[in-house]
Amino acid sequence: MRVFNYRKIGERMWDSEILGLVSAIHREAGKQELFLKQRPQELEKLVAIAKVQSTEASNAIEGIITTDLRIRRLVENKTAPKNRDEAEIAGYRDVLSIIHENYEAIPLSKNYILQLHKVLYGHLNNPMAGRIKNVQNYISVSYTHGETKTLFTPVAPFETEDVLERICEEYNRAVGNMELEPLLAVPIFIHDFLCIHPFNDGNGRMSRLLTTLLLYRNGFYVGKYISLEAKINKHKDLYYDALQESQYGWHEGEEDFLPFVKYLLGVILSAYKDFEERFEIVEKKLPAKEMVRKAILNKIGYFNKQDIRELCPSLSTSSLEGSLRALVAEGFIRREGKGKGTRYLRSD
Question: How far is 35 from 221, CA to CA, in rounded Å?
Fold first, then answer.
């Protein structure tokens, strides 16, 4: 059976890229604390938007979708799910809300993970909700010509409960005894969790929820304001590539987890950078057009409406579109294309 030793991982020599990412994230986390003290009310708007984006993106990665309007209404708890996809989306919303509101009281343990998984399927009649898998699962890829290839075989069902318990214990011991930097322990735990694949369904979404939980418990709150799930979904091929590259030799304890660690640290740092950009835009109460102008000054090359919406989350769609039209008429930006293909470029 696979052996886990996070203390030994902590004793290894880390390359300069990893150390640089960890150091940069700690700096950004310190800056965020100052931002939060300065403008707490304005930043609450970012929380509501990040919840919607996180719920939408994490489910979209798994092919679970609905309309933008339905997503917002579901996340705001203003409507009931109408189908299976919406029931799964509502379950994700519920777990994310629990983590946001109670992360300090949710220790990492097998039993708590099972409880969160049960909540994830709380709107569905799923007999395996909150229960360890009862069939062997596989991580595979399907090609356009119909062939399916198994990339990785997770832990067998009869071993899963014990192995899941051991990685929780190993994480808690290593972080609690300061044997491993938390920013390294989190991606290593998440990678082990994904290799175990403890549930028949919902493993990917649970891994992203646990990432948020563990970051919060270690004082890294960026996911509350900037959706980590949306960043993963935007370039999910990189996510799957890093995961696959790090899985080789996992059962023998010979895997190279660095690609996945670097990937996840890169996502976290990118989210902190986005937070700083958005804070600079919302810290002063500017008219909509000037807020959009300030956001555009942060863009290099072509950009679209969604790029600006991410930087100006407090603006309504009509205010954003009106501001873009006004800036085009003013000559500050140029517009190219039509409909969904519309993009913009600064005139300078």
Answer: 12
Rounded to two decimals, what is the model's pTM?
0.89
174-198: per-residue pLDDT in tens? 999 999 999 999 999 999 999 999 9
What is the sign of the dihedral through the CA atoms of 76, 82, 86 and 90? positive
Q: Which fold has domain 6-281?
A: Fic-like fold (1.10.3290)
Beta bridge pairs of residue 148: 142
| Domain spans, the chain | 6-281, 286-346
Considering only CA atoms, which of 108, 126, 119, 100 is closest in space to residue 192? 108
pLDDT digits 0-9 by tens, 35-55: 887 777 667 778 888 999 999
Report which of 73, 106, 333, 83 is spatially closest to residue 210, judged by C-alpha positions.
106
Among the four given CATH numbers 3.40.50.1000, 1.10.10.10, 2.120.10.30, 3.40.50.300, the one describing domain 286-346:
1.10.10.10
